[in-house]
Amino acid sequence: MGTTTSINPYNGNEIKTFKTHTKSEISEILEKANKRFFSWRETTFDHRKKLMLAAAAELKKNTREYAEIMTAEIGKPITQSIAEIEKCAWVCEYYAEEAESHMANEIIKTDAKKSYTSYEPMGVVLAVMPWNYPFWQVFRFAAPALMAGNIGVLKHASNVFGSALNIEKVFKRAGFPDNCFTTLLANSDAVENIIENPIVKAVTLTGSGPAGSAIAATAGKNIKKTVLELGGNNALVVLKDCDIDTTVDICVQARFQNTGQSCIAGKRLLIDSQISEAFIEKLLVKVRELKSGDPMDEHTYIGTMAREDLAKELEEQVKNTIKAGGKLEIGGKRQGAYFEPTVVSGVTQKMDMFNQETFGPALSITTFKDIEEAIALSNNSRFGLGVSIFTKDIKAAEEMAYKFDEGAVFINSLVKSDPRLPFGGVKESGYGRELSKHGIREFLNRKTIYIAK
After folding, report:
1. How far apart, in Å, do the first and last CA atoms of the chain sit?
2. Residue 229 catalytic?
């Protein structure tokens, strides 16, 4: 039996050492999950709704308890951790109310007396999840999966095992039956065997491109459904007719919330050259105002990054970009896992900060002459998760939305996930959708029922 120690990235203190599950323990957990499925799928929507609303209530009741562990494990500012827990309660409430309608039979007129599509749970679904939103990434899978009658098994990132066990605790405290949702304390090298277990019927992963590719390969070899939500290099496209002050505020939030560690963060700021000077001047004022410090301090907006190696990787990307001709406007310094809020202008398409995903508080700035160039710059990415367009001409922005190779286009807003809307990307940002009716249907068997005359 191995161990994994959780380290606080802000002060370097050990939080807790966890015993990882052995191969036999994992097999036992999966067996129990599979057994639970056959009784869980027989429960009514009303019964599941009651339990899911209880989970939402538990999250609201003990928000601080769950938020503080999250902040300790990854350095997320406490106010943002609290907001994340509250959002998880929202997704629980959403699916408690909407799951039954999302799974209602769809009548289809044919030559039959009656024909329709029914939506039925698949069984045990494995979730392989990242550390950056340790509760939200899980709950946006777990709420629809459990309401659909599926069983959830979580393999979380090894630096957030405390949060992983807390998620399991939420469902236990809410009254869900044992083994409806279980956490596997396992390292990445155990995932392949877990996927290959015939009990696991499907896999959802949020994470890096290499991790997604490996998961998809193993699942594909075993003919199992996958949903992948991978990286992003979202553009913030600022047109000359935008409301500059409002747009600056949104762009700062889009890049620097969660200390920039988000797949949907706006990482590449593309500005019309006619307003770039005035825009950058106001942007830098706002970035200077961001408070760095102890993540447990409610006034802190920029905490540490989750690990020092991640901060070093970002530091290298920034240095390479400056070496290639980019201009450092602010920031650029690292101390341990802390990386200053950083802005680099004059970034071209050949520089690291343009063509690589920067997973931290660093924003690149590139200017354009017209909308055609802006679209080309935005699309010049192997990722396709989302894009933000800022303009007063909303009609024109809506009409050009189809030209962006993205899973989402947000006009005058940062890209964000919402339980009511499908979420997911194209290209190397993955495939499949989470949230809304589209998300709950990803792990359902669409069964055709045909009754002859």
Report:
1. 61
2. yes
For the chain, 453 residues long, the average pLDDT of each consecutive 10-residue run is 94 97 98 98 98 98 98 98 98 98 98 98 98 98 98 98 98 98 96 98 96 97 98 98 98 98 98 98 98 98 97 98 98 98 98 98 98 98 98 98 98 98 98 98 98 94
Q: Catalytic residue at 100?
A: no
| Tally of domains in the chain | 2
Kindly state whether residues 164 and 294 are assigned to the same domain.
Answer: no
Identify which of 146, 219, 197 has the alpha carbon closest to the alpha carbon of residue 444.
Answer: 146
pTM of the model: 0.97
- Do 35 and 89 share a domain, yes or no? yes
Residues 414 and 331 in one domain: yes
Active-site residue, from 93, 180, 263, 340: 263
The CA–CA distances, whole Å, from 227 to 202, 206, 294 equal 8, 8, 36
Q: What are phi and psi of 435, to 5 degrees?
A: 70, 165
The whole domain housing 86 covers: 3-230+429-451
Catalytic residue among 229, 315, 357, 406: 229
- Which CATH number characterizes residue 155's domain? 3.40.605.10
Distance CA 451, CA 453 (A): 7
